[in-house]
Amino acid sequence: MISGFANPHRFMSFSRWAAPTLALIAAALLALGLWLGLSAPPDYQQGETVRIMFVHVPAAWTAMLAYLCLGGASFASLVFRHAVADAAASAAAPLGAAFTAAALITGSLWGKPMWGTWWAWGDSRLVSVLVLFLLFVGYIALRASIEDEGKAARAAEILALVGLINLPVIKFSVDWWNTLHQGESIFRAGGPLIAPVYLIPLMLTGAGYSAAFAALWLTRTRMEVRRRRSLGLALRAAR
Amino acid sequence: MIAGITLEAVALVRGGRTLFEGLNARVGSGRALTVTGPNGAGKTSLLRAIAGLVRLASGRIAFEGSADPAEARRFHSHLVGHQDGLKSARTANDELLFQARWCGATRQAALAAAERLGLAPHLALDVRRLSAGQKRRLALARLLAAPRALWLLDEALAPLDAGGRALMGEIMAEHVAAGGLIIAAAHDPLPIAADTLDLGR
Amino acid sequence: MIAGITLEAVALVRGGRTLFEGLNARVGSGRALTVTGPNGAGKTSLLRAIAGLVRLASGRIAFEGSADPAEARRFHSHLVGHQDGLKSARTANDELLFQARWCGATRQAALAAAERLGLAPHLALDVRRLSAGQKRRLALARLLAAPRALWLLDEALAPLDAGGRALMGEIMAEHVAAGGLIIAAAHDPLPIAADTLDLGR
Amino acid sequence: MSGLGVLLRRELSLTWGAGGGPLLSVGFLIAATVLFPLSLGSAAQILGAVAAGLVWVLLALASLLSLERLFARDFEDGALDIIALGPLPLEASCAVKCLAAWLTNGAPLALASPLAAVALGEPVGAVPLIVLTAALGSLAFVFVGGIGAALSLVSRGGALLQTLIVLPLLIPPVIFGAAAVFAWTHGLAWTPGLALLAAYALAAIGLGPIAMAGACRNALG
Amino acid sequence: MSGLGVLLRRELSLTWGAGGGPLLSVGFLIAATVLFPLSLGSAAQILGAVAAGLVWVLLALASLLSLERLFARDFEDGALDIIALGPLPLEASCAVKCLAAWLTNGAPLALASPLAAVALGEPVGAVPLIVLTAALGSLAFVFVGGIGAALSLVSRGGALLQTLIVLPLLIPPVIFGAAAVFAWTHGLAWTPGLALLAAYALAAIGLGPIAMAGACRNALG
Ligand code: HEM
Ligand SMILES: Nc1ncnc2c1ncn2[C@@H]1O[C@H](COP(=O)(O)OP(=O)(O)OP(=O)(O)O)[C@@H](O)[C@H]1O
Ligand SMILES: Nc1ncnc2c1ncn2[C@@H]1O[C@H](COP(=O)(O)OP(=O)(O)OP(=O)(O)O)[C@@H](O)[C@H]1O
Ligand SMILES: [Mg+2]
Ligand SMILES: [Mg+2]
User: Fold this and answer.
1) Which of these ranges, A198-202, A211-215, A223-227, B79-83, has the smallest mean pLDDT?
2) Whose CA is nearest to atom 26 of ligand 2?
3) pLDDT band at residue A187, thresholds of 50, 70 and 90?
4) Helix (H, G, I), strand (E, B) or coil at D20
């Protein structure tokens, strides 16, 4: 499947129709999910603000998905030397950063009514997302600060993989730390137990976000591939 | 040991630009090769490619007399480049001993090399205080201290005075006579007899 | 303007060692002087002393035609040394424009200089990627871009290819013909007629 | 274009290109800010009390980080010769270098510091004062830190030595600045702290360059 | 003398001479420890609660400060060529460089950290545990920070970029270490934190050099 993308031409011809299709699917899923979500009864304790969940949680999920994609693409580029992989990686980073930022912003917008504060260091999910954001920013900054395309690719790949290994460790450590001294359990508000009325639209919007991300990713990768072609760069800089 | 080096259809690309392609050459033991060419022709890049620091765009570099090229590069070749790789904050003596020992030489060998290159009076100084020529002599000392078959010299003689160049001529002649190989990038002719590989475009 | 430079009984001491003393010399406008001598003789030190970077142990350096030596050094002399003073992380173009403008040249003059030195195709590259000779050409560009009477060249031609040296020969000849002064430390003879000051011990 | 402008532009593009730039400063501040609460764990609720202090320590460290090679790079690659032989007196050149360092790192950090402060629990109302003090403080940091950067040219010491030379000199601005913010949040008189901070910054701007130029000449000679 | 020993000795004398050396690291830690309470003003009484965390952050930042030029110096002056062409595989050479950096900076910092901790109000009884965790932690810092140092070789980014890249990766060791000390002082089980810290350090030692070597090759090629 991935090896199919190794060949730029096959990737371009595939993504030409794949991207728009995914975009349509995303639109449909999001429309349905949001409609269900908004028509659902207000939560007995969270009130109307519960609806933020439908934009917030999927954003957070998609942000994580985005880093997985970034890591996967980097791996393919570093190990299998797939021609398109590096372009895909560099295309995924800004998207991931955007979704992460969205999760952070909607999250703290949610936090204000829920916890009476914009931010709570006690909640591991918040912190992990913030760290995820830092990883994205670091990747983008490093890549932007290297002018030699080939070298930039290599360095960025290494950083992405290191981050991929660390991400779960970081999330674990934060969770573990917060459970160790079990303060702030209030912050777990709305945790795992969610009524179906909310769960179904949440799942729908979640799927919708993912589809949207995929569509954007393909499009950006196409743009990147075209840019490099126009620069006359060997897609895989001389290795 | 390295009995000879063969470049087969070597091509180098730097930053998307092709420097040269289809380059063929052979250096046997006991021979010296001068790589000439205008600034930017790719002399440094070629030497670094032979040393394994720069990746070839295509073609291959074969080391005769040693199964594994990595091992030939690690243990049987010296590269002295535009930069001396000396730490200005350390004494000449420290740097001499490090470079020599790192290449497997003994302390005695290192000091003997410095002696022959006329560095003895300056070994106590910080590298930062050495003159350009003195620095280069320091960098060249490891050639003498740690005998290795292949010498890759990238304009290594430029900062040397007349005496220094004559001396290096002697030293290179001895090395070649002992069956060594020399590949030297240079703008002025080498002080010893050598074949020429011109990268001029 | 600088009409001439006179060294009177100049002595230099580096790190407690006296390099030379009682050195007398004069360079009039329209003349070139080659400073020769073995590695460590004190060529670089002397040039830096003339530029006012190194303090004299004794003696004095007089600039004819300008009341205040500091001003002569600031506005009427160029020093191109062993190091190119280029930032490897910036583009050749940025560095060219900075060095030229810093010496009071216009953008046009700088680009013209680069053009003449054959740098035009490389201006977009990061300095890090330039070859040794290309870097040196970049450092030499300010001589052409910002006309100044006194050129202090410390082995400035060493990394240049044959063509580059010939070109610099032309340029230096023009400078001297226009009444400029050149004091150049070198191990190889200069490409133009010049008197010689030998620091050899 | 005057020598001053030329040098300033070069320094700006240098520090901007190399590790400077708002994005990085902000990123650094955030990253460092994250470490504290995490390492504090359940003590997090008392973060508010120490927020001001933390932000100041971060500011100081960030300035030091970005200053370490202020002169070293130019010294090693010979650019300092060119600068020393240029149209400006070396004192002015040093001042310009510091100014550029402040514009590319200090100022963005100052603008970003409220982020950290509020994230750590400072009241939002304190933001203007925080920005002001941070700006003045980082100005002082740069012109004092520059002295360390110049002094360490001849010594073999690196970043840490420099930090040692400079840190004592950074203590007063930190105290003044933190005091001003603390006073504000506790409804005390905050103008004295601010005034003292401004005075210190001015003194640094006036005297720092002289010391730097001296150290540079010494290193070149 | 084996290549390994040669390189280690060189690196030790280098970092010792240049910016490293126990005195300096310790001085840094002390100076920062002084700076912090001062910046707190009268909030100082609650220092005890934040001591452990603070020491950890200082440790992390100090390590980063001393690591910034781990590879850059050798890269710029060509020594990295010589090292890459030497008898050791580049991975081993990188590991040796990190080890040396730890011996000259990390270890002294670890030994000094109790000073800071106690000065900031940690119970004296916690000292052995603090030293142990600090030692392990700084080990992790060095081998993770080295990756940032190697990656930023090709980049125009300076210290700040490097710090930004690395800081998120330092979160786990900081948490584990601070947690262990925290647990000890609160009479909770402190072994898990210690074990996790050790595991992380080991992983860093195992994987870090591979990433560094890759980054260095990339920069040289
Ligand atoms: C900046 C603020 C916030 C961030 C960064 C954030 C981040 C996240 C993340 C990463 C997830 C997915 C976690 C997972 O799947 O394990 C998540 C899920 C969730 N968040 Fe937030 N969150 C924030 C604020 C809030 C607030 C204020 C609430 C209000 C109660 C909230 C409620 C939830 C809920 C209910 C879920 C879904 C259930 C779950 O996955 O555990 N979050 N958030
Ligand atoms: N990392 C790089 N990225 C892009 N281009 C590079 C890189 N390194 C070198 N080049 C280009 O490759 C060409 C050859 O460089 P190289 O240093 O090999 O030339 P050279 O023959 O050694 O020249 P000189 O005689 O001046 O030393 C130069 O034009 C240079 O601009
Ligand atoms: N800062 C210094 N402290 C102590 N000694 C120094 C210092 N700088 C130079 N020297 C010594 O002064 C002598 C002359 O140095 P200088 O660089 O002037 O020689 P040079 O004639 O330029 O040699 P080269 O031909 O190799 O460039 C050298 O022996 C050097 O060791
Ligand atoms: Mg070359
Ligand atoms: Mg000289």
Assistant:
1) A198-202
2) C133
3) very low
4) coil
